[in-house]
Amino acid sequence: MLQDLWFDPAKCLIGGEWVAPSGGATLPLFDPSTGEEIGAIARGGAADIDAAVASATAAWQGAWGRTPAAERGRILTALGRLVAEKVDVLARIEAADVGKPLKQARADALALARYLEFYGGAADKLHGDTIPYLDGYTVYTLREPHGVTGHIVPWNYPMQIIGRSVGAALATGNACVLKPAEDACLTALAFADLARQVGLPEGALNVVPGLGSEAGAALTAHPGVHHISFTGSVATGAMVQEAAARNVVPVTLELGGKSPQIVFEDADLEAALPFLVNAGIQNCGQTCSASSRILVQRKLYEQLAEFMGARYAALRVGRAVDDLDAGPLISAKQKGLVEGFLARGEGLEIAGQAQLGDLPDGGYYVAPTLFSGVAPDHTLAQDEVFGPVQVIIPFDDEAEAVQIANGTDYGLVAGVWTRDGARQMRMAKAIRAGQVFLNNYGAGGGVELPFGGIGKSGHGREKGFEALYGFTTLKTVAAFHG
Ligand code: NAD
Predict the structure, then answer these.
(1) Which backbone phi and psi does 404 adopt, to 5 degrees?
(2) Which positions ≥6 away from 51 have C-beta within 8 Å?
(3) DSSP class of residue 49?
(4) Minimum-distance ligand 1 atom for the alpha carbon of 235
(5) How far, in Å, from the CA of 36 to the mean position of ligand 1?
(6) Is 36 one of the annotated active-site residues of the chain?
(7) 320 C-alpha vs ligand 1 centroid, how far in Å?
(8) Sign, CA torsion 129/167/66/203
């Protein structure tokens, strides 16, 4: 087992206590950098979800529900500070669990701390309105927590996604049941234990690791859950929404993407180039907002393919602890999926590909690959690969760029590179996506910026103040006093 762990990951954290899952079942834990089995995690099931929902209900109706907004904020702020103190240990745990290069894992831990700082500060700044109405009435609105919120998190950015989802839910007074991904639950458990250490009342945050088809399905179908926040694949998101619909429970879905960066011939190429490649290979391409399509105006096409290709050839891939440009993929399954996409690219021109050096045999490595001259309807230009694979697609004019950019089922984010201010405004309006970046990509991932998709990328918004609205329900009070 990992040296850095101060808790037993074969247990769940329910009601402020570490408890073995009912039946005591476990799942194996693998290090993606080597493929070695390095321990075991809890395989929680329906009975554990029942216990977690009961404990969250008690917290919401009890101590946590009575905690004033300012005090909730103080607890979250203190938790953010503790997370910031533990950045290095959290980064090492995450790197071993998900294969993320240490620098990137560290950035995730810092982002978690920042989410807690932001939502801690916002907790007592969310309020309702008074509404002018008929003579003799006073009308006002109250923003109230949903109650028990379920959080289903994927393996690619566990700390960031927990920060934006659980952080906002706790800030607004909900009690949470968190089901981390079976491939990445260690930092979720660490986080919940740190929350306990700073005085979060028992039951306000419960963590049940386990399989999606067991613990995940039990959580989404549970009648005691009042809101579900899901981040993951389109197929699972649809199942989650169906299950929630049976209980008429609201759902936020953060799903995948096929996000473009559109480079016009007047772009500042020097500024754009690092973003074009990094946005495709960060976290080894396992990023929902990865920029997997690069749309280039034809005049620049050859030059850009050459520049980007050279960057790809220089990329270094290694173990998470080597802290290079890219690490392994999360699992053998993900490696198989990405290799399948690479095989479907056979016959296409490869503008650049990283060389895999001397790597552990069992690790889940693939070579980051850039395809050029790809038709917009090719599977590599339409379907989410979730690996370090980008395509370059040429276009002639603005209208064609918009048509290609909007020509997938997804609509998560997009980047536009042009010096023409009027074109920037037109493109920002024309692109169907939850976020549009002008002359940048990702805007540094700011926690303040509402985030979410349209189309198959999902619905609802997380991050920023917008998330606080999503995690509350609005009550209108109309008082007649004559
Ligand atoms: P996934 O859908 O397989 O799993 C996500 C989570 O859902 C895991 O915790 C899993 O255990 C759980 N789950 C699986 N089956 C379930 C079920 N029947 N009921 C309830 N829960 C279930 O996705 P993944 O492979 O872990 O993640 C990759 C996908 O997630 C990609 O498509 C990616 O784009 C998307 N993603 C989106 C965002 C975003 O913010 N938009 C962020 C990260 C990942």
Answers:
(1) -70, -45
(2) 14, 15, 19, 22
(3) H
(4) 2
(5) 24
(6) no
(7) 22
(8) positive
Domain ranges of the chain: 2-255+459-477, 259-447
Catalytic residue among 254, 265, 302, 339: 254
- State which amino acid sits at residue 71: E
Cα of 170 vs centre of ligand 1, distance in Å, is: 22
Enter the pTM of the model: 0.97
On the question of pLDDT at 302 being above 60, the answer is yes
Ligand 1: does its nearest atom lie under 6 Å from the Cβ of 386? yes
354 phi and psi, to 5 degrees? -75, 150
Our answer on whether the CB atom of 239 is closer than 6 Å to any ligand 1 atom is yes
Q: How far apart are the first and last CA of the chain?
A: 69
Mean pLDDT of 2-19: 95
278 by Cβ neighbours in 10 Å (0-12 / 13-18 / 19+) ranks as middle
417-459, pLDDT tens digit by residue? 999 999 999 999 999 999 999 999 999 999 999 999 999 999 9
21 contacts 45 by C-beta, under 8 angstroms: yes
Closest ligand 1 atom to residue 157 Cα is: 43
In angstroms, rounded to a whole number, what is the distance separating the alpha carbons of residues 171 and 68?
10
Sign of CA dihedral 399, 403, 405, 411: positive
| Atom of ligand 1 at shortest range from CA of 236 | 2
Residues in the chain: 482
Tens of pLDDT, residues 60-116: 999 999 999 999 999 999 999 999 999 999 999 999 999 999 999 999 999 999 999
- Is residue 279 within 8 Å of 261, Cβ to Cβ? yes
If one counts every other C-beta atom within 10 angstroms of the C-beta of residue 383, the result is 16
Pick the CATH number of 2-255+459-477 from 3.40.50.300, 3.20.20.140, 3.40.605.10, 3.30.200.120: 3.40.605.10
| 350 sits in which H/E element | strand 349-353
- Which residue is associated with the tokens 């003799």? 136
CATH code at 259-447: 3.40.309.10
